[in-house]
Write a structure and sequence with these properties.
This protein is of the alpha/beta class. The protein folds into two domains: about 1-55, Arc Repressor Mutant, subunit A; about 65-255, Rossmann fold, CATH 3.40.50.1360. Helices cover about 35% and strands about 25% of the residues. The protein contains nine helices and 17 strands. The protein has helices at about 1-15, 20-30, 30-45, 70-75, 80-90, 125-130, 160-165, 190-200, 240-250; strands at about 20, 50, 55, 65, 100, 120-125, 140-145, 145-150, 155, 170-175, 180, 185, 205-210, 215-220, 220-225, 230-235, 250-255. The strands form five sheets. A seven-stranded parallel sheet has the order 7-6-5-10-13-16-17, with helices on both faces. The chain has a three-stranded antiparallel sheet with strand order 1-3-2, sandwiched between helices. It is elongated and about 70 Å long.
């Protein structure tokens, strides 16, 4: 019966999170027209959503994160995971690169993972990166000009954005407040938003460092769509829906190697 078939299709999509049209045709042995009608009905119910070439379980409305938490408060959360992500990010850097290191608590630890390099040019608006860079005289450090924003421990303002126009960045290592497939990489303040947007424009390759606690959430301002990043680096598997989406879009997902017993 039609109602039973539709229920079975819905359950199949729920269990697999994302499926192709061909997979559904092969599994249920129905025509393309019948499948399209069934998916239209499920989409109208709001339980699934159609995507290019297939369908997926509709993602729950992302949880909003609009309160700006100070850098010092964020820095004590999940420090081991953040250092792990920073180490993964550092593995993509090459000698003589010009890189941008963002102000997030996942990106700032990158610096100590880069100490074996003989020369890098590092552009940043992070107060903590600038301070830590005193230990690495082999690097050329470019601090963006601006006024200090205490809560984010960063330099912000139009001068930062204008200065970025001068530079061709090899790789940008970016942080975010929250990340979802619907709203992308988001943050809470307009000052940081403007700088992040400009960095993504000026960089050849963009890397997003995001710990697992930020997936499925959203914040006030989207500074980058998922497709704006060449690579997503995180500390644990974000789920099949994200994995399949990244695969379709050609976005590399990088996770830590599993620990050996």
């Amino acid at each position: 019966m039609k109602s039973e078939r539709i229920q079975q299709i819905e359950q199949y999509i729920f269990s697999h999170e994302i499926v192709t049209m061909q997979e559904l045709l092969d599994t249920f042995g129905i025509s393309m027209n019948t499948l399209r009608r069934d998916l239209n009905e499920l989409s109208a119910r709001g339980s699934i959503e159609k995507v290019y070439g297939g369908a997926r379980r509709k993602e729950a409305e992302p949880q909003r994160v609009d309160q700006l938490v100070s850098y010092s408060e964020r820095n004590v959360r999940n420090p081991e995971q953040k250092d792990l992500i920073a180490g993964l990010a550092a593995s993509f850097v090459e000698e003589d690169d010009t890189i941008f290191i963002d102000t997030g608590t996942s990106t700032v630890p990158m610096l100590r993972h880069l100490k074996s390099f003989q020369h890098l040019t590092i552009i940043t608006n992070s107060i903590y990166v600038l301070h830590s860079a005193l230990e690495y005289p082999q690097f050329t450090i470019i601090g963006l000009p601006g006024r200090m924003k205490h809560k984010t421990a960063s330099l912000v303002g139009e001068q930062c954005v204008e200065m970025l126009e001068r530079y061709n960045i090899s790789r940008a290592f970016m942080a975010c407040t929250a990340f979802s497939l619907d709203t992308g990489a988001t943050n809470t303040t307009i000052e940081e938003f403007d700088i992040k947007k400009k960095v993504l424009e000026r960089s050849r390759e963009n890397y997003l460092l995001v710990d697992a606690s930020k997936f499925g959430k959203t914040s006030l301002l989207t500074f980058g769509r998922p497709e704006d990043f060449n690579c997503i680096l995180t500390d644990s598997d974000p789920g099949e829906e994200y994995v399949q989406y990244f695969r379709r879009k050609g976005i590399r997902l990088v996770l830590p190697e599993p620990a050996l017993d």
